[in-house]
Structures are given as C-alpha cells and as structure tokens.
Amino acid sequence: MVAGACLLAPRALAAGLYATTALLALAALGSAAIHLATLAGLSRRPVRVEASLVRPGDRERLRNRALLDHAPIPLLYRTGDGAFHAANRAARRLFATEDRLPADTASLLGPPTPERRIVRIPTMPDAPPRTFALAIAQGSGAGGVTHFLALTDIEAELNAADARTLRDLLQILGHEIMNSLTPIISLAETAHEVADHPMDPPAADMIREALGTILRRTRGLDRFVQGYRDLARLPPPDLRPTDLHDLLRALGALFDARWNGRVHLETSVPPRRVIVRLDAAQMEQALLNLLNNAAEAALATSDAAGPTVWLQGHATSTGMVIAVRDNGSGIEDAYRDAIFRPFFSLKPNGNGIGLSLARQIALAHGGSLTLEPPRPDTPWHTAFLLSL
C-alpha cells in the first residue's frame, strides 16, 4: 500500500487534486507506521528453540542397537546378577525373549569362561537341539555388563565333517579287508575243486565239508564288506520336490507288507500339503531302516499295549522333521553315543550298517539324525528324529 500511495500521490498533485493527494500521503504514512510497529513487536518476541526428542545418549544407544540387530549371529551379554540378556534380533528370535533369558535356557550356556566351547541349544519345540560354538569375552563392568557372548551355528559344518570322516574310514576298511579276502576266496575255490578228485572217501568228505564251510563264510564276509563299501560310495542325493504326505504313505505301505500286522504302525501326517526337496529313494531307504529297527525292538519287548511303532512328519520354519518311535525296551545310556558308529550293533546278528546308512543319508541332505532323550511321560521308549 505504501508503494502504491507514493506512485499515485504525484499524479494527483499534478492534476490539481489536492485533497486526494493529502489522503494518499496520510495512507502511506499510516501503512508505514503499522509496518514498523509490527516489526518492532516481532523483534521483542522471545525465540523458542525446540529441544531434540532423543537425547544424545539415547541416540547412541539406538544406533548401537540397530547395528547389533543386523549381526547374523546371536549376541548376548551377562550382567552382574548372573542373568543373560539378548543383545540383538538374532538372539531374541533364538531364545524367544525380548530381553532376559529364562533360567532353564540360560543354564545351557553354563558358567562363562574365556575359552571358546561347544553348546547344544534347542531351537524349536519339536526339533532336536543344534550345535553352536560359544565365544565369550570379558566385559569391562560398564553398565553392569560382565561378559559378552557370541553364538555361531556350526551344525552343518560338524555334520559335513562327520560325513567325510565316515566315508574315509569305510573306504580304508573296505580296501584292506578286500585285499585279504580275495586270496582266501581263490584258495578255497581251488581246494574245493581238488577235493572233487578221487581220494580216500572219509578224507575227501572232510576236506570237502571244511572247504565248503570256508567258502560260504568268506563269500558271506565278502557280501558284508561290499555293503560297507556301498555305504562309503553313497551317491550325492538327487534333490527333487517331494510331497511329505506321499512319502509317509509309501513308508506305511512298505511297513505293513513287511510286518504283516505283527507290529501296529501309527502314522501322523501334517494337516496341510508339505513339499520338500529330497532324494525320495534314499530317504525311503533311511526311514525304512529306522522303521524296521523300531519294529524289531517293539517285538522283542512284551508290552500290554502290544508292539507299536509311531511314524510322524511335520513341517518346521526351516524344513521338516520325521520322527520314528517305538515302545520297545529302549536304548541304555551307555550305548546312546555308540549306536551311530559303523560296525556297532546291539542285535545278535546285526551288521551295524542300518543306522550308519540312515545318518549318512540325512547328512548328505544337509540334515541330521539324532536319538531323542528319554521321556517317561510318553508311551514310546525310543525316538529317532530325522531333520531336514
């Protein structure tokens, strides 16, 4: 308005409009006064500075938490009161807690020591525990922290190492035993042919019987060793999408054909269709070994409920678990760590290859085969869990 009045006033004065000129001058002066008064009022108004919503100390804590949450391995810390706390997202997910670990879970970590060690931690209710390498560092005591802990999942590495060791062992044994058996078989066959020529009848019968026994036993031993060589030469699995329902139904049919009602089989399948990538032929062989062992154990033990085997499969967040259970007499604690070793068997005529082969197949699929700890509150006494 001031600028407009200044422009119009000279024109009005030149035109002789003195009254209009005076009004324009007064309007310009009034507008200028109002403008100056407004500026003066604004200059006297106090300036308010908004405080930060996050304090500097909190900003650093939030930044550190964001960095820890991106770490792929579970991180923990221990405070002076002996409690363990989850430090990042991976630890919170593993132990299903937002901060403090439950006492029964914390007891699995044991008393903190500086050296690196191995711990077994259950990751899901229906899955076997997984193996973790535990690294522990001493804390400075700041904020009450006495120790820092890092857990690295080494289950797959251990399984791969076990598989390599087992293959190497079986290849060496197969090579050495075959070198010994070959000349024995050859000599036995030669002697058996010589004994067919005319000679003293009693002597000939004795030689023929002895050599026939040697020949049968050496051929049996040859087949026995060939089985171990087949275990060492297990081909890589041909992984293809497989319906878990179809696999369990096929196993049930094979079991019923083998045991013909002498052992009752209870099968539990997932409520929904589950597709997994596996070698169906190899997996069927592994599970049949477990089922047949379970049936033999159930038959060998008198039980009021009758010999029963349970076959159960269900999906997990990372794959699947198939359980084979029986109500036999169970496995003694002294043998629980030995049953998966090659050549070890608790059966009078067992060759110790069934469980070893089943575990080899599970390891080749990137999974595991474990013996579940005894549970007195269940009807079964032995339970094997095959996880993929």
TrEMBL record:
Catalytic activity: ATP + protein L-histidine = ADP + protein N-phospho-L-histidine
EC number: 2.7.13.3
InterPro entries named in the record: HATPase_C_sf, HATPase_dom, His_kinase_dom, HisK_dim/P_sf, Sig_transdc_His_kin-like_C
Residue ranges of every copy of the Histidine kinase domain listed in the record: 172-388
Keywords: ATP-binding, Kinase, Membrane, Nucleotide-binding, Transferase, Transmembrane, Transmembrane helix, Two-component regulatory system
TM spans (from-to): 24-42
PANTHER family xrefs: C4-DICARBOXYLATE TRANSPORT SENSOR PROTEIN DCTB, SENSOR HISTIDINE KINASE
Pfam families on file: HATPase_c
SUPFAM superfamilies: ATPase domain of HSP90 chaperone/DNA topoisomerase II/histidine kinase, Homodimeric domain of signal transducing histidine kinase
Enzyme class: transferase
Protein known as: histidine kinase
Molecular function as annotated in GO: ATP binding; phosphorelay sensor kinase activity
